[in-house]
């Protein structure tokens, strides 16, 4: 399977992270070697439901979520090579067997690699807001992407989004307003600690007293 990388992804991580050697075998997978559509039963060795996170960063959310829910499989998409390697090594050290990482661009992956009704949840936490007007077309949450998410979610599946950027939150609300096949639902709390999802960004922003905005949809058809 060939998934093209976008020119518009966020820049690579600091050099101190890139210089490190991570042990990633079996967790950081080569997207070019995967079948299309992706066979999750082969990937994880079971047929448990799959949740996918876009932009896993350092893997804090996936580490907590996968540890708490061993009966669910988790796939993280992270384009920055250093972060992808860091995540995989972190999950290996935690002895987690229900997490995999791919270094791919999310839009292309959803379009080319995921089968209809293959995911239980899609998590999008603190995506790049691209605040300048001339860059806003690069924002992930657009009508075309929401259509892709609806296609790959099972009936009853959920799209969960959190951002700290007020203008992006307004944009997301406009995109998600009355979208076909979805119904708005309260954002579920996914961590036992303070906050909704427990990412590094959420902890940082809440400590600074900055508000965060959450939106959640459930596919009903």
Write a concise synopsis of the structure shown.
Helix content is 31%, strand content 20%. It is an alpha/beta fold and 221 residues long.
Shape: globular
Query: What is the domain total for the residues?
Result: 1
Topology, number of strands = 8
State which percent range the strand residues make up.
15-25%
Protein model, in words:
The protein has 221 residues and is an alpha/beta fold. It has a single domain, classed as 3-Layer(aba) Sandwich (Rossmann fold), CATH 3.40.50.150. The chain is 31% helix and 20% strand. The chain has an 8-stranded mixed β-sheet with strand order 1-4-3-2-5-6-8-7, sandwiched between helices. The longest helix is centred in the middle third of the chain and has 13 residues, at 81-93. The model is unreliable at 1-14 (pLDDT under 50).
Features:
Rossmann fold, 8 helices, alpha/beta, 31% helix, 8-stranded mixed β-sheet, 8 strands, 221 residues
List the helices and strands and how they pair.
Blueprint: H1 15-18, E1 28-29, H2 40-44, E2 50-54, H3 60-68, E3 73-77, H4 81-93, E4 99-102, H5 106-113, E5 119-125, H6 143-152, E6 153-163, H7 166-176, E7 182-184, H8 200-207, E8 213-219
Parallel strand pairs: 1-4, 2-3, 2-5, 3-4, 5-6
Antiparallel strand pairs: 6-8, 7-8
């Amino acid at each position: 399977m060939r998934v093209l990388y976008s020119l518009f992804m966020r820049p690579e991580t600091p050099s101190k992270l890139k210089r490190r050697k991570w042990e990633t075998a079996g967790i950081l997978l080569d997207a070019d070697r995967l079948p299309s559509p992706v066979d999750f039963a082969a990937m994880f060795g079971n047929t448990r439901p799959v949740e996918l996170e876009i932009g896993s960063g350092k893997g804090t959310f996936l580490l907590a979520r996968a540890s708490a829910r061993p009966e669910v499989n988790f796939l993280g998409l992270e384009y920055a090579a250093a972060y992808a390697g860091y995540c995989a090594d972190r999950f290996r050290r935690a002895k987690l067997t229900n997490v995999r990482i791919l270094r791919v661009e999310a839009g292309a992956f959803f379009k080319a690699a995921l089968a209809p009704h293959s995911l239980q949840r899609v998590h999008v936490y603190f995506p790049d807001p691209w605040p300048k007007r001339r860059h806003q077309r690069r924002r992930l949450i657009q009508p075309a992407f929401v259509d892709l998410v609806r296609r790959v979610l099972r009936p009853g599946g959920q799209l969960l989004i959190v951002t700290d950027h007020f203008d992006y939150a307004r944009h997301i609300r406009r995109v998600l307003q009355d979208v076909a096949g979805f119904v708005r639902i309260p954002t579920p709390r996914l961590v036992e600690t303070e906050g909704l999802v427990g990412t590094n960004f959420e902890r940082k922003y809440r400590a600074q007293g900055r508000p965060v905005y959450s939106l959640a949809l459930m596919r009903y058809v």
